[in-house]
Amino acid sequence: MGAMKVLTVNPGSGSLRLHVVDGNDATEVDDVESVVDTYGTVDVVAHRLVHGGPDLVEPTVVTPAVREAIAAARSLAPEHVPKTEKLLDQLTKLLPDATHVVCPDTAFHRTIPAVAHTYPLPARWRTQWNLRRYGFHGWSFSWATRRAAQLLDRPTAELNLLVAHLSGGCSVCAVSRGRSVDTSMGFTPLEGTMMTKRSGTVDPGMLLWLLREGKLSVDELEDGLYHHSGLLGLSGTSDDTRDLVRDGDVKTRFALAVFEHRVRRELAAVAASLDRIDALVFTGDIGWDQPEVAEAVAGGLGVLGISGGLSRTREQDALISAPDAAVPVLALQSREELELARAAGDVAR
After folding, report:
1. What phi, psi does 153 have (nearest 5°)?
2. Residue (of 138, 137, 152) closest to 330 by Cα position
3. Distance from the CA of 180 to the CA of which of 85, 141, 173, 212 falls in 20 to 30 A?
4. E strand or H helix that includes residue 116
């Protein structure tokens, strides 16, 4: 990054993470207002944009036209995009002299081939409404790919990885020679593996039935799928894996077992897009810091040559599988702020 100081703005569905990145150092910031008080000014503000729709597919300096494209994508990720819009309003006023860059999560997945990103839907639907798989958590996958290459001491362009980003939102990705070739999330961040509060993939025929038979309204269905499903829906008590592991009653053990099964299922699915697997990588809050989940997922992927018996130590990014494991397993702390700063800095130079 050189001498450039970058504020990274990373809004999740239920969180906001702010970091000031200066060179290779990143300092977490408590709130938006404290940035100006503490740091005075920054050169670049990197705004993580979960969904930019068909028009915003790479890091881009914010302009009125870009703001229009963001607004057009609002309904595609209603849990995320409005938060980015609000933060853009707030931060362009607080930091008017900085270069503001939006960094779509979908950018890393631009390399997914058509055979993997195409939905088998009528052509008119696909072309008229840009119905396709976009993929998300791109900055986490990008960082994990770079970091795994460092730890394995291999060139990124030679690596084939299975990466599981497990956090409030969860998705998996197949990386072939450093490039995304398949992922579990699709048109929206609701598809794919089960999450903490989101359902992940469920039978669309079941959803049609619930609507057609008047069991639920569209609003009730959306609220249930986004806010009351996943670990929370199955356990009935918590969406936090730490609570569920600690509690350990029948319902919480079952919720975790379903979660782990769904992660394994999605990893096995995207593995079909690889000709070999050089490593399995866990990242995200759960992937990095919940060894029980990593053990259950890896231990159930014997069909892919992956095994359990993982180290529980999480003091630093590390290889957590046995030295003689056929497929190495790594646990990496997600550093999306460093990838966002790098990408935004490249655009702003």
Report:
1. 55, 50
2. 152
3. 85
4. helix 114-117
Catalytic residue among 43, 105, 182, 240: 105
Residue whose entry in the numeric block shows the structure tokens 């319902």: 251
Cβ pair 34, 16 in contact under 8 A:
no
Query: Mind listing the pLDDT tens digit of every residue in the chain (349 residues)?
Result: 457 899 999 987 778 899 999 887 889 898 888 887 887 789 999 999 999 999 999 999 999 999 999 999 999 998 899 999 999 999 999 999 999 999 999 999 999 999 999 999 999 999 999 999 999 999 999 999 999 999 999 999 999 999 999 999 999 999 999 999 999 999 999 999 999 999 999 999 999 999 999 999 999 999 999 999 999 999 999 999 999 999 989 999 999 999 999 999 999 999 999 999 999 999 999 999 999 999 999 999 999 999 999 999 998 999 999 999 999 999 999 999 999 999 999 998 8
The two tokens of residue 101 are 């860059």
Return d(Cα 220, Cα 325) in angstroms, integer: 47
* Residue with the two structure tokens 């008080």: 37
Catalytic-residue membership of 37? no
Structure tokens belonging to residue 30 = 């408590």
Alpha carbon distance 181, 152 (integer Å): 21
CB–CB of 173/137 below 8 Å? yes
Token pair of 233, please? 């829906």
> Tokens for 245?
């592991």
